[in-house]
Write a structure and sequence with these properties.
heterodimer, A: 337 residues, alpha/beta, four-stranded mixed β-sheet, 52% helix, globular, B: 307 residues, alpha+beta, five-stranded mixed β-sheet, binds iron/sulfur cluster
Chain lengths: 337, 307
């Protein structure tokens, strides 16, 4: 169990209970008891197996504290939020409408362009980090340039109104071309820990496992804000609708994935434990901790403000909502270095 | 140019400085981290000027290519930049002479400063004319004289103000209080792949502010240029620079308009400078001649070498 400086209570114990006691959360686990004032908690993330009382659930909802239930690898399973949160029908209405007009295309394009821009930024970053190896440094630099060219070409493309399905195909083909190049280059950064290519399911090499866990945690941060703004998490612009798939959440986390990639590389570099035999539960526990202490605390400049990653996601989702209402493309978060 | 008025002091103390403390610059973007990505340059040998990197006048950066590979000399890209160089030299020469005279115990400086300024103005315009034939020398000369008059008067009055307040100061202390900034601060930018002889227009001695004089429209790259100097300063002195100021000096109804743009040297500005530096270094290292731009500024001075 861990309470971060910014109020994330992460519960990953197997066994124990959480209950309410006089405006506090009483946590009883095998290692002992601890009481935390509800006021000092922003959200509770349960990744382990604990019992929760309804009294506590009500108190959390009434205090505006979100409760997320996730698997041990961080994949979100369920969320409890106050009944009145996200009660903005207008945003949801605009979201549905935008699927049929140019707004949907603008948003989809901004998501893919934003993601490629950040991927290119990572390539530039590693190009510099590897500057002692001239050839490799140049390869990274050239990959960044090719990505930039793909991004600019896509940015300049015009798609007729109402052609989201068609536009999506073009965008996804650009995205997958760039992804191939990107991950082939990331092998130079991640290869020493057994990474051979991106594996979304059934990964067993530490880099892929870390990426999957960190993306899951990112998705829960995005999900929270999508609900907060009353958007439908199942209806995406880039990811098509499929029962049970949080398409809009996956859409909006796309531009931030390269930021997670960079975090994972730096996590693996600094991880002191053993990695050669594959991943371990200690590695995942340490990754989760660092995700909240480092990644979530990292600052990124967005629309003239220097924001912590958590606030950045809030403002980004808010920006998508404003863009929907104003009929323009949203500004996507960017790591310029 | 560099004396801050009470309103600006308030803006600095109540707004910019607290906000720069609240949202500190990412440590990885401080100049003293020059040895790691993203600060580290691709090449330490290929030393570039801060102005050369930041300037966004030529859309393809072909101007830098022409200067480096064809002409092998530093020529401004537009008459506005040429004008800026002349103004900058006039101002710096006035400050230099004023300090010299104050050290000699002379406080009635205005006339002497104006005589020196007149000489500098004539010689600078004559040498700039060799590159910028379209420079309106008479008008520029008159404008520079106005700047010189304004600056010389301010310097003299500042000196007297300090002297009247602290009558028993020796020359050294008097100069320090009257000129609380270093002008023409030379920095060695080589750790960041920049020139060894960077010259910062002025740096506020106590508060970590860097100044740069410009004329003409405000442009985004002016702030980027100041960020470049801040990075070089940080790499050299290992001291933080959080605030930048572009001093805009322009003609206004037969008079003068001096406007100071204070801003925090944010992560974005730093990153933008570094990105431009890397692109320029790579372009020159890979010997890739940039294309002629599709939309060039009408008054580009390199046009005749370009096509
Ligand atoms: S003429 Fe155009 S391409 Fe050539 S240097 Fe000037 S701005 Fe650049």
């Amino acid at each position: 169990m861990q309470l971060t400086e910014y109020g994330h209570l992460i519960v990953d114990e197997l066994g124990g209970s959480l209950r309410k006691r006089r405006g506090r959360i009483l946590i009883s686990t095998r290692s002992g008891k601890r009481e935390i004032p509800i006021k000092s908690v922003r959200d509770v993330i349960v990744m382990g197996k604990v019992a929760l009382t309804t009294d506590l659930l009500i108190a959390l909802a009434e205090s505006g504290v979100d409760l997320l239930i996730a698997t041990p690898t961080g994949r979100p399973v369920a969320r409890l939020s106050a009944a009145r949160a996200g009660g903005t029908a207008r945003n949801r209405y605009e979201q549905y409408e935008s699927m049929r007009d140019r707004r949907g295309i603008l948003i989809a394009k901004s998501i893919i362009v934003g993601k490629i821009r950040n991927q290119a930024s990572n390539m530039r970053y590693y190009s510099k980090a590897r500057r002692m190896d001239r050839d490799l440094s140049l390869m990274f630099y050239e990959a960044a340039e090719r990505m930039k060219a793909e991004m600019e070409a896509l940015d300049g493309m015009e798609f007729p109104e109402g052609s989201l399905d068609e536009a999506r195909k073009t965008m996804l083909s650009v995205e997958s071309r760039v992804a191939d190049l990107y991950w082939s280059m990331m092998r130079f950064e991640l290869g020493r820990w057994g990474f051979e290519g991106r594996e979304k399911r059934e990964a067993s090499d530490p880099p892929n496992v870390c990426l999957n866990v960190a993306y899951n945690l990112l998705s829960s941060m995005v999900w929270k804000n999508v609900i907060r703004f009353g958007l439908d998490p199942f209806l995406g612009y880039v990811h098509v609708e499929r029962p049970g798939r949080l398409s809009l959440v996956f859409d909006l986390m796309e531009p931030m994935r390269p930021m997670v990639d960079r975090f994972v590389v730096s996590f693996l570099r600094s991880y002191k434990g053993e990695l050669r035999g594959g991943y371990s539960s200690e590695m995942i526990a340490s990754l989760k901790e660092r995700f909240f202490s480092d990644f979530a605390e990292d600052r990124v400049e967005y629309k003239g403000r220097n924001l912590r990653m958590e606030s950045l996601i809030f403002f980004y989702v808010q920006e998508v909502v404003s863009a929907l209402r104003e009929g323009r493309a949203p500004t996507t978060p960017y790591i310029p270095w | 140019m560099y004396y801050i008025d009470p309103l600006e002091v308030r803006k600095l103390t109540r707004d910019l400085l607290p906000s720069s403390r609240e949202h500190p610059v990412d440590e990885r973007l401080r100049g003293w981290n020059w040895f790691q990505s993203p600060l580290s340059p691709y090449s330490s040998e290929l030393a570039l000027g801060v102005w050369e990197i930041s300037s966004a006048v030529c859309p393809t950066r072909r101007d830098a290519w022409i200067r480096r590979k064809v002409l092998r000399k530093s020529i401004p890209t537009t008459p506005t930049l040429a004008k800026g160089i002349v103004i900058h030299r006039v101002v710096s020469s006035i400050f230099l002479l004023a300090k010299k005279l104050a050290y000699l115990g002379r406080y009635e400086l205005r006339d002497e400063l104006l005589r020196e300024a007149g000489r500098i103005i004539d010689s600078e315009i004559a040498s700039m004319k060799a590159y910028a034939r379209s420079l309106e020398e008479e008008r520029l000369g008159e404008f520079c004289h106005r700047i010189a008059k304004w600056e010389a008067t301010r310097i003299e009055s500042k000196l007297w103000e300090i002297k009247a307040k602290y009558p028993f100061l020796n020359e050294e202390s008097l100069v320090q209080l009257s000129f609380p900034f270093s002008t023409e601060l030379v920095l060695d930018g080589s750790l960041l792949g920049l020139s060894k002889y960077l010259r910062v227009d002025a740096a506020w001695m106590f508060g970590g502010i860097i100044f740069d004089i410009k004329t003409g429209w405000r442009e985004e790259w002016h702030r980027v240029q100041v960020a470049g100097y801040a990075l070089a300063f940080e790499s050299f002195f290992e001291r933080p620079i959080d605030i930048g100021c572009v001093v805009y000096v322009d003609e206004a109804a037969g008079s003068l308009r001096v406007d100071r743009d204070f801003f925090t040297i944010s992560d974005g500005l730093r990153a933008s400078f570094l990105e431009r530096r890397d692109e320029l270094q790579m372009m020159l290292m890979r010997d890739e001649e940039p294309k002629v731009a599709q939309r060039c500024p009408a008054n580009c001075l390199l046009r005749e070498y370009c096509q």
